[in-house]
Write a structure and sequence with these properties.
heterodimer, A: 358 residues, alpha+beta, Rossmann fold, OB fold (Dihydrolipoamide Acetyltransferase, E2P), 2 domains, six-stranded mixed β-sheet, elongated, B: 265 residues, mainly alpha, MetI-like fold, 12 helices
C-alpha cells in the first residue's frame, strides 16, 4: 500500500475557540478557523501571538474556554482528552524518549495501541525508509544530530496514522543551513502523506515554503487567512504586510489625500482608490524601481549600499519622504552617493490601516 | 593569570598534609584491629584473631544492615518515586509545605524522630521488636533524599515535553509513568538509591534508639563493641565495616555507571 492512501483526511472546524488563563490573561481571543482535509495550514505570528496556544487547544493539551468548539470531521473533540483525540504531534525540542532506540520511539504509539510485534516492526521499517533513517534504528536519540532527531519525531507522530498532524515550530532548534534543507524535505513529506496538518511557526519563509494556506496571528487574533502568495501580494491588514516580508512606509500630506495621490521624491503617483483616504501607504523594497534621473521619475540619493549576494539593498534619501529601502538586482549600477530616479507601480502600494476603514 | 612555578609544589604539599591528617586515623584504627596487643604496639605481632571474634559475635549485623539498606531502597522506590512525581507536578502551596515537612527528619535529631516513633508505635510489641521498626525509622530519614533528587529530575522541561509527547500518542498515565517517565529519570533514581543505601547502612543515632538486643545493625554493633570489648575488637570491627561498605558501594556505583552509560543522556 502506498503511504499516501493510509492516512485519514480530516476536516477541522474550530469555532469561537478562546483561552483565558487563571490569572485573567487572554492568550487567545475567540477564534474561528477551518482546515480543509489534507491541507497544511500554518499558524504564523510573532511570539506571544497565541499560535502555540491555538495548536495546543487543537491537540487537547490545553482546555479552551466555555463556548469553544472543535470538530474533527463530524466528531466533536472539544472535551476529548489528548490521549483519545488521535493526533500526532511534533514538538519544538523533539521530545523523544531518551532511553529508547529510534525504532522504539517510532513504534511507541503502535505499542500503546496494542499492535503486535511483527506488524509493528513492519510499520516502523516503512517509516524509517520514509524519513531516511536507515541504519540508525538502534541508536538512541542522544546519538543523533538535530535533523535526524526531528525526523524521528515526525515518524513517531505519523506512525499512529493520526487524524490530524500538529507541528509546533519543529525546525526552530536547528541551525540555519540545516533548517532550510529540512524545511524543503518536510514540505515534500507533508505533501506526500497528505495528512491534515497545522504547522506553527514564527518564520515566514518556513510558512511560505511548507503551508498551503497561512493564518497570520497577532495578539491572540487571526488577522488574515489565505494562501501565501495572496497574503504577500495583497495583504488586507498592515500587520500581514509588515510581518510577511519587509515594507517601507510612505507618508501622505493633506494635499496628497485630497488629490488621491502620493509623492515620492517629487514624483506624484496616483493612489489606488481603495486606499485614497489613508494617511500613509506601504510598499515593499523590491517594488521600488531604481533607474537614472529622468522625466517621469522621482529624485533620490543613495546613502547606503549593502551587497547581500543575491541582491543589493539600497537606502535612499528623499526630499519628501523618510528614508526608503529598495532591493535591486545584483548587477545594478547605483553606487553610494549617486543621485538616482525612482518610481513605483501604484498597483504595488499597500494600505497602512485595515482596508475596511474609510 | 600567571602562576608562580612554586605554586604546584606548595599545593601538593598542603594536599599531602591534609590527606595524611585525614587518612592516618583510618589507617591507625585498621592497624589496631590487626595487632595482637594494641598497648605493646606493632612488635606484639599481627593477627586475624580479633576479626574472627568480630565475625563470630557480630557477624549477623553485617547481613541485617545490608538487608535493611536494600529494603530501604526498595521502599523508597515504591513510595518516594511516585511521591517525587506528584510533588514535581503539583503547583499547590500545600505540596511545597509537604516537601518541607518531608525534609524535617533530616534536620531534627534522629533521637527525637526515634522517640516519636517509639511513643506512637512502641506498644505494638511484635512490630517494635522486629527489624521492620528500624526500617520504618530509616525510611523516614532517607525519604527526603530520594524524593528531592528524583523530584528535581521530574521538574526538568524535557520531562514535561516527553510526558506530553506520550500523551499525544495515546498513552495512559500508568503507561507513561512506567514506560517513559521513570526510565527517563533513571539516572536520578540510581543516584538517589545509592544515597539512600549509604545513609541507611551508616545510620546510627536513630537506629540506636530503635534497636533491641535482637535487632542490631552494623553501626549499633560497632558502638556496643567499643563500649564493652577490647579496643582491638572494636578496631577489627571498624575494619569489617570498611571492607563491607566499600565493596558494596563500589559495586553499586559500577552498576549505577553502567545504567547511566546505557541510558546515554
Amino acid at each position: 500500500m502506498e503511504p499516501e492512501s493510509i492516512y485519514p483526511r480530516t476536516h477541522i472546524q474550530i469555532t469561537d475557540c478562546a483561552k483565558t488563563y487563571a490569572d485573567g490573561t487572554r492568550a487567545l481571543q475567540p477564534t474561528t478557523l477551518t482546515v480543509e482535509p489534507g491541507e497544511v495550514l500554518a499558524l504564523l505570528g510573532p511570539s506571544g501571538c497565541g499560535k502555540t496556544t491555538l495548536l495546543r487547544i487543537i491537540a487537547g493539551l490545553e482546555t479552551p474556554d466555555a463556548g469553544s468548539q472543535i470538530l474533527f470531521g463530524d466528531t466533536d473533540v472539544t472535551r476529548l482528552p489528548v490521549e483519545q483525540r488521535g493526533i500526532g504531534m511534533v514538538f519544538q525540542h523533539y521530545a523523544l524518549f531518551p532511553q529508547m532506540s529510534v525504532a522504539a520511539n517510532i513504534g511507541y504509539g503502535l505499542k500503546i495501541r496494542g499492535v503486535d510485534g511483527a506488524e509493528r516492526d513492519r510499520a516502523v521499517g516503512e517509516l524509517v525508509d520514509l524519513v531516511r533513517l536507515n541504519g540508525l534504528e538502534h541508536k538512541r536519540p542522544a546519538e543523533l544530530s538535530g535533523g535526524q532527531r526531528q525526523r524521528v519525531a515526525l515518524a513517531r507522530a505519523v506512525a499512529v496514522r493520526p487524524k490530524v498532524l500538529l507541528l509546533d515550530e519543529p525546525l526552530t532548534a536547528l541551525d540555519a543551513k540545516l533548517k532550510e534543507s529540512l524545511r524543503d524535505e518536510l514540505a515534500e513529506l507533508l505533501r506526500r502523506l497528505h495528512i491534515t496538518s497545522v504547522y506553527v511557526t514564527h518564520d515566514q519563509q518556513e510558512a511560505l515554503a511548507i503551508a498551503d494556506r497561512l493564518a497570520v496571528m497577532q495578539s491572540g487574533h487571526i488577522v488574515q487567512v489565505g494562501d501565501g502568495e495572496a497574503l504577500y501580494r495583497t495583504p488586507a491588514h498592515p500587520f500581514v504586510a509588515t510581518f510577511l516580508g519587509r515594507v517601507n512606509r510612505l507618508e501622505r500630506t493633506v494635499a496628497d489625500r485630497a488629490g488621491h495621490t502620493v509623492s515620492i521624491g517629487g514624483l506624484t503617483l496616483a493612489c489606488p482608490a481603495a486606499w485614497a483616504h489613508q494617511s500613509a501607504l506601504l510598499v515593499r523594497p523590491e517594488d521600488i524601481e531604481v533607474g537614472s534621473c529622468a522625466v517621469g521619475w522621482g529624485q533620490a540619493v543613495v546613502i547606503q549600499r549593502s551587497f547581500l549576494g543575491d541582491r543589493v539593498q539600497l537606502t535612499l534619501s528623499l526630499s519628501d519622504q523618510a528614508q526608503l529601502r529598495a532591493d535591486v538586482a545584483r548587477d545594478h549600477a547605483a553606487q553610494l552617493g549617486d543621485s538616482v530616479g525612482i518610481r513605483i507601480n501604484p498597483e504595488r502600494l499597500m494600505p497602512s490601516h485595515e482596508s475596511s476603514k474609510p | 593569570m600567571r602562576t608562580n612555578p612554586k605554586t604546584p609544589t606548595l599545593l601538593l604539599g598542603i594536599t599531602l598534609i591534609v590527606s595524611v591528617f585525614m587518612i592516618a586515623p583510618i589507617g591507625l584504627s585498621v592497624l589496631a584491629g590487626l595487632l595482637n596487643n594494641y598497648s605493646t604496639g606493632i612488635k606484639s605481632g599481627l593477627t586475624t584473631r580479633w576479626l574472627m571474634e568480630v565475625l563470630d559475635v557480630y557477624g549477623s549485623t553485617v547481613g541485617w544492615s545490608l538487608m535493611l539498606g536494600l529494603l530501604c531502597v526498595l521502599g523508597n522506590l515504591l513510595i518516594g518515586v511516585p511521591c517525587a512525581y506528584a510533588l514535581a507536578r503539583s503547583p499547590s502551596r500545600a505540596a511545597r509545605l509537604f516537601e518541607e515537612l518531608l525534609t524535617l527528619p533530616v534536620a531534627v535529631p534522629g533521637l527525637a524522630t526515634a522517640l516519636a516513633l517509639i511513643l506512637t508505635y512502641g506498644h505494638m510489641r511484635d512490630f517494635r521488636q522486629s527489624f521492620a521498626f528500624i526500617l520504618v525509622g530509616h525510611m523516614v530519614f532517607t525519604l527526603p533524599f530520594m524524593v528531592r533528587t528524583v523530584s528535581s529530575a521530574f521538574q526538568r522541561h524535557e520531562l514535561l515535553a516527553i510526558d506530553e509527547a506520550a500523551r499525544t500518542l495515546g498513552a495512559s498515565f500508568i503507561q507513561r509513568f512506567i514506560g517513559v517517565l521513570v526510565p527517563a529519570v533513571l539516572p536520578a533514581i540510581v543516584a538517589g538509591s545509592l544515597m539512600v543505601f549509604t545513609l541507611s547502612v551508616g545510620e546510627f543515632n536513630l537506629t540506636w534508639m530503635l534497636h533491641t538486643p535482637l535487632t542490631r545493625t552494623l553501626p549499633v554493633g560497632l558502638a556496643d563493641s567499643y563500649a564493652s570489648m577490647r579496643i582491638e575488637i572494636g578496631s577489627a570491627y571498624t575494619l569489617v565495616f570498611l571492607l563491607v561498605i566499600l565493596t558494596v558501594l563500589w559495586g553499586l556505583q559500577a552498576i549505577g555507571q553502567l545504567i547511566e552509560k546505557h541510558h546515554g543522556t
